[in-house]
Every structure is written in structure tokens, then in C-alpha cells.
Amino acid sequence: MRLRHRIVLFTASLLGLLPGLIHAQERRYETNLADEDWSFLKEPSKRVDWWDPVKYVPMGHEDWYLTLAGEVRYRGEGFRIKATDTTPSVSDQYLLQRYLFGADFHFGNRIRVYTELQSGVINGKIGATRPTDKNTLDLHQGFFEWRTNPSEAPRFDVKVGRQELTIGSSRLISAAPGLNVKRSFDGVRVAVAKRSWRIEGAAAELTELESGAFDDAPDRRITFWGVAARMAGPGLKRAWTIYYLGLRNKDIQFAQGRGEDTRNTFGINWHGNKGGLDFNYDGIAQIGSFQGNDARAWGISTETGFRWRSAVWRPRAGVRSNAASGDRDPANPAMQSFNPLFPGASFAGPIGLFGPTNMIDLTPFISVIPRRGLVLAFERPWYWRESTGDGIYNTALRLLAPPTAGTGRFIGGSSGVLVVWQATRHLQLTGAIIRLVSGQFLDTTVVGAGAGLYSATAAYRF
């Protein structure tokens, strides 16, 4: 029933990708609470929100202050797999809850100590293992940061401890904010910025999620390191990022087998906008080893959109197109399966059903803004296997269907509808419905007759 679990995850990516689209205010409640900057509230006349007293709490010295932040999120989800000639209909309904609370101590302009607790709860009818949805209470982030004064050049900062990471392309390294329990890393991150250049690097171990209280620890099996250089350009409001990401996973499962996987990932990202046009492109190459044999893989991810800003409801239309390699022959020890590292719940967009490994997808989409703070989005992706010698996976590289599950390349298509309403500065309401129609490769599997999913989410940030 692993495929049922993956179908549920598509909604998880929605909240992680959409907040930036629907609120560009001076007061930014970020997906990563640690990224918020409330130093402007040092001026009492700017304190106009009823949460402002806890966003800037003076601590007795010049520029010493405390910021408190939090998120409470409830999401009801349900899904149904239609009956086939040999299997009965299956449905699950459950409630996901996430609670985040952060305390940000600023000791002047240079020194900062940040702590954040996370609790994830799931209740209801649950038919599949949910390792990313339950964590009674634990330290999600806890780091020390030292940085130069904002007026100094080049600007430099270093973070040491447990933290969320984004290095290079967020398609590959993400906290997966849409999941009920977010991802974090234990390690060090360094960044240097001068004029239009920013260079950042990190070395860390993945924080292993456990379901109990204060029992999360670094996962010694999974080590990550990387460096990225970003240059912002004029004119087209574009930015180039080149990056190298290294990963060693001592125990990972592919269709070919189970063993140690080491990947060196080289990528380039180009994104920008001009007028109504926006784009975001990644080209990725991987070399390394799996079970001591050569591993070589590749990936491409593109999104191009255009918004008619002067039109009624300001429609934005575009297309996403992605491809990533799959293994050619499980009997051949050489590996070609793409490793997506630590992506969000959806590599390809807010309504992606599958992970990028051995996947080609084409997704036209359109969104409209009927009123301020309200977004309606529609998309229709189609999916194919890149190689018939490999199966299909979720973003956590769990095998959903082995190469022998069916025949042909065509996996299927889906239709999705999303509604996001920023009801107040603090409250966001989201609803989503998706319908999967299986293709030739899935015809004889548990989802051969199709499946459906819905979710309704309320998230409050302060």
C-alpha cells in the first residue's frame, strides 16, 4: 500500500510553495520561522499588530531582543482507491496536526541563538505507515549564528547546530514544509555575500525522526555536504546558481537492490522574471557509486509561466516539464537511477503525485486571483517512466511499483484543483482535490481503477 501513502503526500507540497505567491507584505510570516526578521519593530510606532509585543521583546541592552514565533496547522485528509475486479475499494480519513514554536534571541547585530520545537500528530483511519506525520515533541531547530554587521562588506554568517537547510536548488535540498513533520539537519552552514554574489556551503547529517518525545538524533547513515554560488543579474531580474551537493547514504533501497549510495550532484539553476514572464530551470548531473559500482544519473526540471497582470483575475498560465533518469537493467550492477536527495513532497510542482526518479512529466497549469488573498489553481499532469527497466518512486525514494508491476512507459494522468485563501494576515485556508487516472503501467496494480484525494487545511502563524 505504499502508493496510497504517496498519493496522500501531494497535498503536503501545497503550503510549502504557495505562501510566497499570495502575500508580499512587510510583515512576512515565513515558512521557516527562523527566517523572519522583526528588527523594524524596534520603532514603537510600527507596532500595529496585536502579536507585535512578542515579536520584539527588548532584553535590556542596545539591540538585544527576543522574538517569539509559531504555527498551528490542522489538515483533514481523505483518499479513496477504487475497487478493481480483484481488490476491494479502500479509503482512509484522518486529521493531521502540526505545532511549531520558536524563540529567537538576538544579542546585538552579530550574535543570535535560535530554538524551535515541533510536534506532529495524526488521528483517524490510517491504513499505511506514516513516518513523516508523527513526532510527539522534539527540537526541530536549535542553532548558534554569528554574522557581520549589515553595513560590512563582504557579509558573512555561520550557523552551527540543528537547522533547516536550502543549498543550491530547493528542488533537491528542502525542509519539506508541506509534510506534517518538517525535515532538519545537524551540522554547520556558512555564507558569504558581496555585491551580486552569494556563496554558501554546508556539511550536515539528516535528523532522524522518531515518534516519541525528544528522541530525534542525527542519522549517522546519511551525510550531506555541498556548496553553491549565486549571482543575481540586471535587466531580466534573473539569477544564476551553480551548485555541488554530496551525499552518502549507507542504507538505501532502489529497484536494483539495497546498499550504500554515494552521489556527487552538479547542477545549474536559472530563474527570473520580466514583466509577466517568469521561469525556473534546473539541469542536474550525478556521478558516484551504488553497492561499490558506478552510478551515473541526470535530471532536468523546468517551469515557465506568464501572468496577465492587467487582466481581470490576473491569470497565470504555464507549463512544467521534468525528466530524471531511471535504471536501465536491474541485472547490470551499474546504476542509472536518479537520487533526488532531500526534496519537498513534490519535485515538479504543487500537485505532483510521484518522485522524480525514473520519471518524465508534463504539466500545463493555470491560476487566477478572483480577489486579494484568494488563489484558484488548476493543473493536468501526465506521467511516463523514463526507463522500462526501473519502477516508480516517491520523493523519499520508496519504491511504489517495481519494474515488473506493469508494461509500457505511460503511468497515467491526474487532474487537480487547489484553492488558497489568505483570510487574514495570520490565517491561511487551503483546499485541494485530485483525481488519478491510471495508465498502462499501473493497470494491474491496486490503483488500476484510479484513486482520489481531498484535503482541507487551516494554518495560523504568529
What does this structure look like?
- With 462 residues, the protein is mainly beta.
- It is built from four helices and 22 strands.
- It has a 20-stranded antiparallel sheet that branches.
- β8 (197-208) and β9 form a beta hairpin.
- The longest helix is centred in the N-terminal third of the chain and has 8 residues, at 2-9.
- The two termini are 37 Å apart.
Largest sheet: 20 strands, antiparallel
The outline comes out as globular
Straight-line distance between termini:
37 Å
Helix share, percent: under 10%
**Overall CATH class:** Mainly Beta
Low-confidence stretches: 1-25
Question: Can you write the helix and strand succession as a string?
Answer: HHHHEEEEEEEEEEEEEEEEEEEEEE
CATH topology, which one?
Porin
Mean of residue pLDDT values = 89
Strand content: over 45%
Question: What is the CATH architecture assignment?
Answer: Beta Barrel
Q: How many helix segments?
A: 4
- Indicate the structural class: mainly beta
Tally the beta strands: 22
Number of domains: 1
Quick rundown:
5% of the residues lie in helices and 54% in strands.
